Amino acid sequence: MQFIDLAEIEVEGGKGGDGIVAFRREKYVPAGGPAGGNGGWGGSVILSAAEHLQTLLDFKYARSFKADDGKRGGPNNRTGASGEDRIIEVPCGTVVYNGESEELLGDLVNPGQRLCVAPGGKGGLGNRFFLSNANRAPEYALPGLPGEKRLLRLELKLLAEVGIIGLPNAGKSTLIAALSAARPKIADYPFTTLIPNLGVVRKPTGDGTVFADIPGLIAGAHAGLGWATNFCVILSGRACFSTSLTLLPPMRSPITKPSRLN
Ligand SMILES: Nc1nc2c(ncn2[C@@H]2O[C@H](COP(=O)(O)OP(=O)(O)OP(=O)(O)O)[C@@H](O)[C@H]2O)c(=O)[nH]1
Ligand SMILES: [Mg+2]
Fold first, then answer.
1. Is the pTM of this model over 0.85?
2. In terms of domains, do 174 and 197 share one?
3. For ligand 1, atom 11: residue with the closest CA
4. Same domain, 169 and 224
5. Which atom of ligand 1 has the smallest separation from the CA of 170?
6. Do 142 and 175 belong together in one domain?
7. Distances 42 to 39, 86, 151, 170 between C-alpha atoms, Å
8. How far, in Å, is the centroid of ligand 1 from the Cα of 176?
């Protein structure tokens, strides 16, 4: 069984700095010639795989990321400073797609692995660049180019063999806390769990089975209601599914016998 956490974000590289028009002005150097520097490169947006992240939840709130612009060129042929890169941390296992063309851009598997998703723009050329025999004093420079802008779709596959699904407040988190070392928040109100919690249930043989406590499902979840909508549940092969239901009156045990689905 795979739970796929999804997020869509917009990334934009920084604009390159503008080239400038300047001339060398020094004592005893008459007509010193053009000396306008080039603009610096715009910063890039870079995704970086981080071990401490487990989900794409952060991207539900922050969805737009832009790197710094490059600085303007300076006089005396000084090139402008490059813009700072914007590093965005994503969980290991995040697969990155272009949100418009659906093209696969990369798969961030190992901690520290990086992927440049929006390169910064090139800085514009200063007037020094245009010096030629035909034009000894060019009075023009080029503006910096814009950085690349992209819509990205991020997908994170969480692997679990057993999913605990049920109505909000049914006792799903209590069940995974009792079975495994996972310590999700448990409280007497619906939608306490907003993201799946994974827990490893040890078998007497020593090896473990990964359980996932899924946010409460409500009628209309397929149309975007509730919090479980971003975690598409894909059943593959012989996935085992245990259901927890709230029984009335509510003080009875909410756990029904696990059923097996193929
Ligand atoms: N009486 C009784 N109460 C229980 C049982 N299991 C859980 N509860 C209580 O039911 C409430 C909800 O439990 P949770 O484990 O947070 O429920 P949940 O299904 O994870 O809820 P959401 O994450 O909000 O969907 C808590 O107050 C629990 O203490 C049970 O077996 N019997
Ligand atoms: Mg819960």
1. no
2. yes
3. 188
4. yes
5. 19
6. no
7. 9, 11, 18, 51
8. 11
Ligand nearest to the CA of 228: 1
CATH of the domain at 102: 2.70.210.12
Residues 88, 184 within the same domain: no
> What CATH number does the domain containing 220 carry?
3.40.50.300
Return the closest-CA partner of residue 91 out of 187, 159, 11, 43. 159
- Please tell me the total number of residues recorded for the chain in this structure: 262
pLDDT tens readout for residues 134-156: 999 999 999 999 999 999 999 98
Give the domain range for residue 11.
2-21+32-157
Q: How does strand 149-159 pair with strand 94-98?
A: antiparallel
As for how many domains the chain has, the answer is: 2
Residues 150 and 165 reside in one and the same domain = no
Digit-coded pLDDT (tens) for 214-260: 888 777 766 666 665 555 454 443 445 555 544 444 433 444 444 44
Handedness of CA 179, 185, 191, 193 (dihedral sign): negative
Q: Encoding tokens for residue 216?
A: 């409460």
Smallest-distance ligand from the CA of 190: 1
